[in-house]
Amino acid sequence: MDELVEEKLKAMGVKPTKELAALLNEWKRRQDAVRPAPLSLDAIVCCTMIHDMFLKKKASQEEKKEG
After folding, report:
1. What global pTM score does this model have?
2. Which among 17, 27, 50, 52 is most buried, taking Cβ atoms within 10 Å?
């Protein structure tokens, strides 16, 4: 994850986690395989949304196990 991505995340109010960084890095790796370029804002927004959805699902599953 480069400085441009970190700046965009900061502007969005998102604190990067290891999981989010891994998702962004994998997106970038796959993108670069066909078209090397910096990650677009759309890609960053999509990754943060997927990450948030994953965290909500994980929290929901943990609640079901406890209750």
Report:
1. 0.84
2. 27
